Amino acid sequence: QVQLVESGGGLVQPGGSLRLSCAASGSIFSIDGMGWYRQAPGKQRELVASITSGGSTNYADSVKGRFTISRDNAKNTVGLQMNSLKPEDTAVYYCNADTTVTTRARLNVWGRGTLVTVSS
User: Fold this and answer.
1) CA-CA distance, 38 to 7, in Å (whole number)?
2) What is the pLDDT of residue 38?
3) How many angstroms separate the CA atoms of 11 and 2, rounded?
4) Average pLDDT of 26-41?
5) What is the largest distance, in Å, between two alpha-carbon atoms of the chain?
6) Is 87 in a helix, a strand, or coil?
7) Angle value at C-alpha 24, between 19 and 53, nearest 5 degrees
8) Phi, psi (deg, nearest 5) at residue 109
9) Rounded Cα distance, 107 and 117, in Å
10) Which of 44, 53, 70, 99 is most buried (CB neighbours < 10 A)?
11) 82-100, pLDDT tens digit by residue?
């Protein structure tokens, strides 16, 4: 199977920056889209940013110009650079990947999440 492990969350003051990382491991044949989602307390999980294997990106309007998603296809990793953080960015951030495993089955996989808290 495939596992996604996130890292890089924490507490940051408004206006600060954080970088999240996610590494995929397991019986991976290929990875198509990768993305970051977030879920704030009492709210639904929402897409923050996504990136295709070719490098095309998509961002939620609320993070455009502040967040940058990137990936390393050779290392099966995806990152999210978050700048100019706001209190409303506080949430658990989840990594997601559309994978094809070595049996050629397709799996959509979620990480366990990493907490980002923006507060003074």
Assistant:
1) 14
2) 98
3) 29
4) 95
5) 48
6) helix
7) 80
8) -120, 145
9) 30
10) 99
11) 999 999 999 999 999 999 9
